[in-house]
Amino acid sequence: xxxxxxxxxxxxxxxxxxxxTNSRKxxxxxxxxxxxxxxxxxxxxxxxxxxxxxxxxxxxxKGIMAETDSLxxxxxxxxxxxxxxxxxxxxxxxxxxxDVTGANLIDVKTSWDLFTFMAVTEEQARKDxxxxxxxxxxxxxxxxxTVMYCLVNTPEIxxxxxxxxxxxxxxxxxxxxxxxxxxxxxxPENQRIKVFNFDYDEAIIxxxxxRIVCAREYLKNVSLGNPFKRFEICVxxxxxxxxxxxxxxxxxxxxxxxxxDWGTKK
Length: 266
Hints:
single chain; alpha+beta; Lambda Exonuclease, Chain A; 2 domains; 3-stranded mixed sheet; two-stranded antiparallel sheet; 9 helices; 7 strands
């Protein structure tokens, strides 16, 4: 078990979208989506457990393995040199490592295949990644940021895995034609990048600050719980300085006991 100082805990920009989801209850700032995210975060930080589907799926694997290829593609198409940023930035609320920094703030996304790449729209990019790049803009004091989707060849180890899975569904002589789904050399390089530009929004930053204050308060009160009771935690704002929340606290802790005879032998 790890002791975490939730009072000063800093969130990663990739998780801000969870905190920004709106609650269906008017008197609560944290939605059920946000609470679920925070409970999983608590387990990860306190007990060093993380859901395997968060780190091991094929989409994230390709994103990690093909990141250099995506940067190389961007350089070829734009004619500019970019370097993968290794420096971590932080403020009082968040901490993160943007992909590309400097004059241009760029977040690189590697598409799984031609179908997922073609389906990407500005609306979808904003929904999936605006809060993340907004966080990076906040950290680096940038007013603009770019999300670039790249379509590059899938690493051979992942293709082999896909072919193996497909072999259970089709005869071997029919699987090879699907290998082409993961190789894109025949598509012009300038058609394998999608670029979406986004602007900084101070109002949303203030909302993020508000939600983080509440999230920290929530995390301070999360526990594995008594198996004989159910706890429901609600957080409300107590103090504001301008548009920014400076203090939040528990509004209520409602406890519902299980029936008195629960677990007794009949």
